[in-house]
Design goal:
Blueprint lengths: L2 E6 L2 H13 L4 E5 L14 E5 L13 H14 L3 E3 L2 H7 L2 H10 L7 E5 L4 H9 L4 E5 L9 E3 L2 H9 L10 E6 L7 E8 L2 E9 L28 E4 L4 H13 L4 E8 L5 E7 L6 H7 L3 H23 L1
Length: 317
């Protein structure tokens, strides 16, 4: 029997998908990919492979999990295996600079961003480009919003760089980015499965930039950040039709099957896209309120991919 193989490095994020796959009776295997020995001269196992490797894997003591996954995906693709979110998706997952290049090539606006290699160059670069306004510092390879900091002054950046809280990016690359001031502290994350829009989530950012839905507080938690009674995560059914088409075309051109794409609108209504997350998670409380289940939709999609693979194999026999 062929299986769905789920490649990942975080068991806590796997449970909701595992439950959805089990509810549908789909044959699947857990492939925790942090280390191992692989015979590249032999074919890999058959099946559908779903890559859930995260850009934040290094924060869970899996420093080289992404690099290992890149090599394993190349092996799988060399032998023609069906990989959901393959090598190109992983490449964009672990580099925001490459994300922005791909987004701009697809006609999607991103915030003005400067790539800085070298901690000692940060202050001079910020002084040159952002002396008059707020700006964001983020790692090129991040995840969950970790390491993303907003600065209103150059002095504040200097204090951070020289202080004990400074976080060096794992790949040595910083991004200095213009701060898009929204009329309310709100961003939108559009979710796609099978390259098609599913729903969007409005996220209250008043508490900061760590926005992973799976790591958010639960509804009913007194510590849950909210603005005027608004939940941190609120599902909406649609986004601008033109933006949706551009996102779907971008995903198709870059062979990305499953993703969450984050954007923000400024006070003039101009939309800026600033993150593509190919290891997307979903907030269960927001879904319960909206009567939605993205993991069920995802499990169905993986099941259909496995069925399609089985039909092709039967036709070839």
């Amino acid at each position: 029997m062929t299986h769905i193989h789920v490649i990942h490095e975080n068991a806590a994020w796997l449970d909701p998908l595992a439950d959805a796959l089990d509810r549908q009776g789909l044959p699947w295997r857990d492939w925790f990919l942090d280390r191992g020995v692989f015979d590249l001269s032999r074919p890999p196992p058959a099946g559908v492979f779903y890559n859930r490797m995260s850009a934040s894997s290094h924060t869970r003591d899996h420093r080289f999990a992404a690099e290992l996954t890149a090599a394993v995906l190349a092996w799988l693709e060399r032998y023609g295996r069906r990989v959901v979110n393959g090598s190109r998706a992983l490449d964009l997952e672990i580099s925001k600079a490459r994300q922005y290049a791909a987004l701009e090539a697809a006609g999607i606006r991103t915030p003005n961003t400067f790539l800085v290699a070298g901690k000692e160059l940060l202050l001079a670069a910020a002084r040159q480009h952002f002396a008059a306004g707020a700006f964001v510092l983020k790692p090129n390879r991040g995840g969950k919003g970790l390491g993303v900091r907003l600065f209103y002054t150059l002095d504040a950046l200097g204090d951070y760089i020289d202080g004990l809280d400074y976080e060096p990016p794992v790949d040595g690359l910083h991004l200095l980015q213009e701060y898009v001031l929204a009329p309310v502290p709100l961003i939108t994350r559009a979710e796609f499965i099978g390259g098609r829009f599913m729903y969007a989530v409005e996220v209250d950012t008043s508490d900061g930039f760590e926005l992973c839905p799976a790591d958010a507080c639960a509804v009913g938690d007194a510590a849950c950040p909210a603005t005027e009674g608004r939940a941190k995560f609120t599902i909406v059914d649609d986004i601008d039709a033109g933006l949706k088409r551009r996102y779907e075309a971008f995903l198709s051109a870059n062979r990305i099957d499953v993703a969450g794409i984050e954007f923000v609108a400024d006070s003039d209504g101009a939309i800026y896209t600033y993150d593509v997350n190919t290891n997307t998670n979903y907030n269960p409380d927001a879904e319960a309120l909206a009567g939605r289940s993205a993991m069920t939709t995802l499990a169905c999609y993986l099941g259909k991919e496995l069925e399609r693979l089985s039909r092709r194999r039967d036709a070839a026999d």
